[in-house]
Design a protein that fits this description.
This protein is α/β, with parallel strands linked by helices. The protein folds into 3 domains: 215 residues, Rossmann fold; 90 residues, Rossmann fold; 81 residues, ACT domain (Alpha-Beta Plaits). A 6-stranded mixed sheet has the order 1-2-10-7-8-9. Strands 5-4-3-6 form a 4-stranded parallel sheet, with helices on both faces. The chain has a 4-stranded antiparallel sheet with strand order 12-13-11-14.
């Protein structure tokens, strides 16, 4: 531990520095998720920070250690959103001018909130790396202090306070699971966790589109890029300091697909009644995808943030209902005669389905002139209920095909 760039003492000093200035978020056991995962699952609700993300911790720990001269010059940061809000909010509180450079793909909610904290926002580039290059250019041109989102010992120590609190609230934990972007948070948590409990496992989670940490630790070439719902961890370049810590202290890094992240977001809403952004749901996604790794263990998940665009959240929830067969689209072939729609609606209603939308198909799809295809979107209980609806319609002589929502 002594050869690493951050120590347990640094994390403990950060905790003392931050006391009362950031939220000491709850770390609570989830009975339902424990049952699903066949493990003892605890959740650290960092989405309850003022800016709805753990980034408050590292940002404030760094800002509080600036000299008076550095404060007067002002700070600049690059971020896809959460680091931006953490720096902007706490810089505003402390009277420090702040400029934030954000990639063009940053969700509108994060841009709006960052500006709302009083920061100057510059949208630049299609990747975090391009935004970072512009931030470094502006820092040099305007003599601003660069606050790195993850490759800074002050940031790492601040983020490590998450694990300190988790092990204070749930000292029996034997596994910590956290999302990995640039690596600052997982590095800080690993330092704190291993400093307090040497045999604890620390596991990182990335998306398959951005798996730089896993690839680096495996000695593979880094191939990163593509669309992801977890834009908060869509980072191509791992920090040098976090990588050094990860090589020493991480048990492993797992990759999860987009659909698994979407499922985890939906589960957090339905089970815990809490909002998680894509990055914040990555840890739960890993539990769903790799159950054999976590079965029987006492697992602490870091729900790192809840800053998700409401339109995107609505889409994720609806897509989840479709995947689970709770919203289904049926094509019912009917004779093009009066009363046919009423018959179909009646059978669906009698079987307990709730019709959401109906569309006639008379012109497309090879329908003969005296028949019509009726596309009916129905809210159901589950996949079994879908089969009951289809059976009820077929029992009345209709030809039915499931188009979406309950196949497989």
């Amino acid at each position: 531990m002594s050869t690493l760039p951050v120590t347990l003492a640094d994390v403990q000093a950060a905790a003392a520095r931050l006391k009362g200035a950031v939220v000491r978020t709850p770390c609570l056991r989830s009975e339902t998720l424990s049952h699903i995962a066949k493990a003892d699952v605890w959740i650290k609700f960092e989405n309850l920070q003022f800016t709805a993300s753990f980034k408050d911790r590292g940002a404030l720990n760094t800002l509080l250690q600036l000299t008076d001269a550095e404060r007067r010059r002002g700070v600049i940061a690059m971020s896809a959103g959460n680091h931006a809000q953490g720096v902007a909010y706490h810089a505003g509180r402390l009277g420090i001018p702040a400029t934030i450079v954000m990639p063009s793909f940053t969700p509108n909610t994060k841009v709006t909130h960052t500006r709302g904290h009083g920061a100057r926002v510059v949208l630049h580039g299609d990747t975090l790396a391009e935004a970072g290059a512009e931030a470094h250019r502006l820092a040099a041109a305007e003599q601003l202090v660069f606050v790195h989102p993850y490759d800074d010992p002050r940031i790492i120590a601040g983020q490590g306070t998450i694990a300190l609190e988790m092990l204070q609230d749930a000292p029996e934990l034997d596994t910590l699971v956290a999302p990995v972007g640039g690596g600052g948070m997982i590095a800080g948590c690993a330092i704190a966790a291993h400093g307090l409990k040497s045999d604890i496992k620390v596991i990182g989670v990335e998306t398959t589109a951005f798996s730089a940490m896993r690839q680096l630790l495996a000695g593979e070439p880094v191939t990163a890029g593509g669309d992801t719902i977890a834009e908060g961890i869509a980072v191509r370049d791992i920090g040098k300091l976090p990588l050094a810590i990860a090589r020493s202290l991480l048990d492993r890094v797992l990759s999860v697909e987009e659909v698994a992240v979407e499922r985890a977001i939906s589960l957090f809403i339905e089970v815990e009644k809490t909002v998680a952004e894509g990055a914040g749901a990555a840890g739960l996604a890993a539990l769903l995808v790799y159950p054999e790794i976590f079965r029987g263990r006492k697992v602490g998940l870091v729900l790192s943030g809840g800053n998700i665009d409401t339109r995107l959240l609505a889409s994720v929830l609806l897509r989840g209902l479709v995947r689970d067969g709770r919203i289904v689209r049926l094509r019912v072939m009917i004779n093009d005669l009066p009363g046919q729609l009423s018959r179909v609606a009646g059978r669906i209603g009698e079987a307990g389905g709730n019709i959401v939308e109906v569309q006639h198909q008379r012109l497309f799809g090879g329908v003969v002139a005296k028949r019509a295809g009726l596309d009916v979107t129905v809210e159901t209980r589950d996949r079994l209920h879908v089969r009951e609806l289809v059976k009820a319609l077929e029992g009345d002589g209709f030809i039915v095909r499931v188009l979406e929502g309950a196949e497989g």
